[in-house]
């Protein structure tokens, strides 16, 4: 069974219904969508909600998978971390990227790469490789900055307004 691999939010999803619909619509038309914005603005929460809704649909027959990159300090471990999030086992004597590509090549799924900002170059390289080799794969990334690769759509996540509070 496909997994989001992330904890279930403890609060309800309020105030981003329009953004949720827009992001889902964009994912129907692009294979790489990056949610950008400053830290704490809600990129991960929006990505989780989009993932939750899409995981129960038919668009991604092989599910929605979540790879949290925040704790990853070594960019060289990005392929292993991604493979582990997808349940792809490493094979002795074979590069993990090769195993990952083979596993994903014929699968229709959404991969969420969360917190790419500290590994932007490595994420861009991995995403570019995955998308070129795996025609049914779509990726939703969250980052403080775009990955800057061909075909990327960028959605800027704005802070939520506080009801009843006038901005000065």
Q: Can you describe what's shown?
A:
It is a single chain. With 168 residues, this protein is α/β, with parallel strands linked by helices. Helix content is 34%, strand content 17%. It is built from 5 helices and 5 strands; from the N terminus they run αβαβααβαββ. It has helices at 17-29, 43-55, 78-85, 96-104, 120-133, and strands at 32-36, 64-68, 109-114, 137-143, 152-156. It has a 5-stranded parallel sheet, with helices on both faces. α1 (17-29) crosses α2 (43-55). The chain is globular. 33% of the residues are buried. The mean pLDDT is 89.
Topology:
Blueprint: H1 17-29, E1 32-36, H2 43-55, E2 64-68, H3 78-85, H4 96-104, E3 109-114, H5 120-133, E4 137-143, E5 152-156
Helix pairs in contact: 1-2, 3-4
Main sheet record = 5 strands, parallel
The helix count comes to 5
Low-confidence stretches: none
Determine the N-to-C terminus distance: 49 Å
Overall mean pLDDT stands at 89
